[in-house]
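Exercise 7. Predict the joint structure of the components listed below.
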Amino acid sequence: MTTDPAPARRRPTHRKGRATLTRASVGQAALDFLGRHGPAELTMRALATELGVSPRALYNYVEDRRDLITVAAEIFQSEWRPPTLDPAPDRWRETLRAYCHDLRAHYRRHPGMTTLALSENITMARHPVMLRNVDALIGFFTEIGGTGLPPREAYLACMETIRQIVGFVEFQDRPHDRPPEDLDPAELRQTPPPWLREGADDLPHLRRAAEDQHSELPDEVFEFTLDVLVDGIAATAVKRRDL
Amino acid sequence: MTTDPAPARRRPTHRKGRATLTRASVGQAALDFLGRHGPAELTMRALATELGVSPRALYNYVEDRRDLITVAAEIFQSEWRPPTLDPAPDRWRETLRAYCHDLRAHYRRHPGMTTLALSENITMARHPVMLRNVDALIGFFTEIGGTGLPPREAYLACMETIRQIVGFVEFQDRPHDRPPEDLDPAELRQTPPPWLREGADDLPHLRRAAEDQHSELPDEVFEFTLDVLVDGIAATAVKRRDL
DNA sequence: ACCTGAACACCGTTCAAGT
DNA sequence: ACCTGAACACCGTTCAAGT
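Solution:
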């Protein structure tokens, strides 16, 4: 069907009916696996079974499980193309918000990735594509609102933004998208929640919040997070300008 | 030495020379263990060895490993006594900052706790003491700066604050306090870092940030985080007042 | 060169039996 | 009532041997 441009025949592309493994293909398989199952289920043996090879075969392409997760994380990072940012005074807020929405959606697509990297002490954001994205985001902050932020504050604002998105996905979206299995799904929508049922007479604010149906909708909570982030950065920008 | 007030003798306090196990003592031992070792090292077998019993003995007090971690998390929460907050217009910012510093220090003392609870899908903040703390923090936000925040915004501000602290400890402090073992300690202080060495010609902002010695000091980064958080919440308060 | 199968040292958890 | 010891099914990883 396709016209292959006579590739270098260094390495067979197939073996025993399946495509030959590579470091990249093994990492991609791990990333796909994380989109379907929880991080704890990603074992060398399970991945090997899915690829139709013995567990030992994976060790020809990755050093160990930690290395496997590192490859998956790199592919994960390289897959994201950020929306364009506009530092103009009347545009930077909305484009930054759109940027954050898109980044949140990307992390949310592979819920286990960040937690897994965290628990394995893997340093993320090393992939060239991600480094370029980070550099562009810092550049954006050095120009926002006309005056822009000084270099150091722009760097901090960039890291702050990324950390907030990751934190939101891990601590808000993930428990919401994959609630613990030991409680009934019906129990989730009860108001007030069972742990607030008794002895909550001295917890008036929590009780009121628990009765508010909107309180736990992640999308609405995320808007508040963006409000605080954007306004907080704007205030910092004003403060630095007045110095 | 101490005068014991004739306790009810329902249960022996010692057995074979060591104190009798209880659900609380096992949980406390797990929490202590997490202060000394990484979360992955906390195994039923390792904890049993440290307590001088067989692994099976632990199952008389906790249902399984997940339950053990839940108990440890509850003890962890009950151990924190928050500093006092003052919502007065000229005081709320500084007292909120002090509050956040204290909470950060508490989480930092048991680095593995949050990550472990996260990876085991354990819902935190169920302990009565912590619920009271959360309620008080919401109450604080309903009164800040004279006008205060509406109930819903106060609740969101409370959750935002806690999430930011936890996110900071997990994503900033933990990698800094316990760097991955596969790179030399010397490599950490190099400027620019090795992953920025080549092909970084189109990464001017990252390069500049990497040369700035202050960029990676967690305490200074934390001040920026608090700047954004406090100013962001203040801006939200003003916005709501003007509506 | 790349794979398989067997093995080792770990893990959580359970069973049957001790005291 | 609470414990031990042995066992089971898992895991990451390695060794020796196949093709």
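Discussion. Chain B has two domains: 14-75, 80-178+213-242.
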